């Protein structure tokens, strides 16, 4: 089951990459030399974008619900993912990278924001100076 889950090139990642490329941003994807192999790396802006699935990364929104089968396994799995994510973000920030987390709920579901707003907010963060930010679905 889990072998069929995409670890990269998710719909959200592909959307963001295409939209950012159309706006003139150039980047590398899934850079292996950095903690966690970030989804999008913009060296010119010293910026990293992580496109996180709400279920797999334990975002507390309407898209996250622990499965009824094997709940202890899933709880441990999600908690381990969250711990790893926090460690990777800390390491990236300690080495001078700016980090943007884009959550899946910003892209789909009942709290999604418009694609234009998502790209505008992402592009604004890239060209800004904020060291860490998150984009999630509307409250």
TrEMBL record:
Keywords, comma-separated and alphabetical: DNA damage, DNA repair, Endonuclease, Hydrolase, Nuclease
GO BP, sorted A to Z: mismatch repair
UniProt name for this protein: Very short patch repair endonuclease
GO molecular function annotations of the record: endonuclease activity; hydrolase activity
Similarity comment text for this entry: Belongs to the Vsr family.
Source organism of this protein record: Roseivivax halodurans JCM 10272
Presence of keyword Repeat: no
UniProt cross-references to Gene3D superfamilies, sorted A to Z: VSR Endonuclease (3.40.960.10)
Domain of life of the source: Bacteria
Record-linked InterPro entries: DNA_mismatch_endonuc_vsr, Restrct_endonuc-II-like
Pfam families in alphabetical order: Vsr
């Amino acid at each position: 089951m889990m072998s069929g889950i995409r670890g990269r090139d998710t719909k959200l990642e592909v959307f963001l990459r295409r939209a950012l490329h159309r706006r003139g941003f150039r980047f590398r994807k899934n850079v292996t030399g950095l903690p966690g192999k970030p989804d999008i790396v913009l060296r010119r802006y010293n910026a990293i974008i992580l496109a996180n699935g709400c279920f797999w990364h334990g975002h507390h929104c309407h898209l996250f619900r622990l499965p009824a089968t094997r709940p202890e396994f899933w709880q441990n799995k999600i908690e381990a993912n969250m711990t790893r994510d926090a460690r990777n973000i800390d390491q990236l920030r300690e080495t001078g990278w700016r980090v943007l987390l884009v959550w899946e709920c910003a892209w789909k579901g009942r709290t999604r924001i418009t694609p234009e707003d998502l790209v505008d907010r992402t592009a604004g963060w890239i060209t800004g100076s904020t060291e860490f930010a998150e984009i999630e679905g509307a409250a």
